[in-house]
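Budget justification aside, the reviewers requested a transparent look at the raw inputs and outputs of the sequence design task funded under Objective 1. We therefore reproduce one unedited record. The lines immediately below are the structure tokens for a 293-residue chain.
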């Protein structure tokens, strides 16, 4: 049966209240260790390895036609395995084998057909099926066979239940936007230290602030009242995610300006941008932080 990241413990129809405490109690078991994050911050770990691994996983997504959830699961396995076993040093072929095996395991959990040839691509060392299977067993053992990962998607429906929608399409829009934010922030090292439930709540808060600003205060207050949510940690997670979203907006503006038909240099483009642009972004961030608190 295909593993559903939104419902790791049960089917959607059986998603009853008694599963919620289990989700929150178990989410730490499906995260990389905090030492993993601290290693990147202190530069004891080479962040370029993770960036290259994410690039490889993204390439496999297109070559094998994997859905984004499969790729999210593969990254979760990779982060947890490396935080448990350490970063392979001086043997890039081992790093490649770990990444390939995590993708293979994720695809199997999602019941998705794939070809090892497509998965490995045309570059680098090619591994046979037995070699990948042996690494899969090592990964399974290191993760204590906890392959039904609890991720931010596992908490989406729970937090959505805190707000009432007159129009069902509004609920779907909010869920879709929050899901998009979670996918986009998955590569950010800063979020590795936050529990999946906090990432989910932060994504929904930001999505609601974007799409339904009038309902944002009531939604925010409802989530803050949740017994499973630590307000201080949620604020920290929201602020980290907010910085990323604001960076995306600025990148989008830069992209649009750089694609204009009028010839313009990078220096000229920055000089011609109005001085009010940056304060507007800062004001938006300040306003959002104030409304959260």
């Amino acid at each position: 049966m295909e593993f559903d990241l939104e419902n790791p413990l049960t089917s959607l129809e059986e998603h009853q209240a008694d599963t919620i405490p289990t989700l929150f109690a178990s989410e730490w078991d499906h995260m990389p260790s905090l030492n993993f994050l601290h290693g990147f911050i202190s530069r004891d770990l080479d962040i370029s390895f993770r960036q290259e691994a994410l690039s490889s996983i993204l390439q496999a997504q297109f070559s094998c036609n994997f859905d984004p959830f499969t790729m999210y699961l593969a990254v979760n396995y990779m982060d947890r395995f490396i935080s448990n076993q350490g970063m392979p040093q001086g043997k890039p072929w081992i790093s490649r084998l770990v990444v390939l095996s995590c993708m293979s395991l994720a695809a199997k959990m999602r019941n998705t057909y794939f070809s090892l040839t497509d998965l490995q691509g045309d570059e680098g060392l090619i591994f046979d099926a037995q070699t990948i299977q042996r690494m899969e067993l090592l990964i399974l053992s290191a993760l204590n066979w906890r392959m039904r990962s609890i991720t931010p998607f596992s908490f989406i429906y729970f937090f959505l239940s805190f707000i009432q929608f007159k129009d069902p399409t509004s609920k779907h829009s909010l869920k879709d936007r929050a899901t998009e934010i979670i996918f986009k922030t998955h590569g950010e090292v800063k979020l590795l230290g936050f529990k999946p439930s906090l990432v989910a709540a932060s994504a929904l808060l930001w999505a609601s602030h974007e799409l339904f600003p009038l309902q944002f205060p009531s939604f925010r207050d409802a989530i803050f009242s949740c017994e499973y949510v630590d307000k201080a940690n949620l604020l920290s997670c929201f602020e980290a995610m907010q910085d990323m979203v604001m960076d995306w907006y600025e990148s989008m503006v830069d992209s649009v300006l750089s694609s204009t038909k009028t010839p313009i240099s990078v220096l000229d483009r920055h000089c011609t941008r109005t001085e009010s642009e940056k304060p507007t972004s800062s004001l938006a961030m300040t306003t959002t932080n104030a409304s959260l608190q």
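Residues 261-287 have pLDDT under 50 and may be disordered. Residues 255 and 261 are 12 Å apart (CA to CA). Computational costs for records of this kind are itemized in the attached budget.
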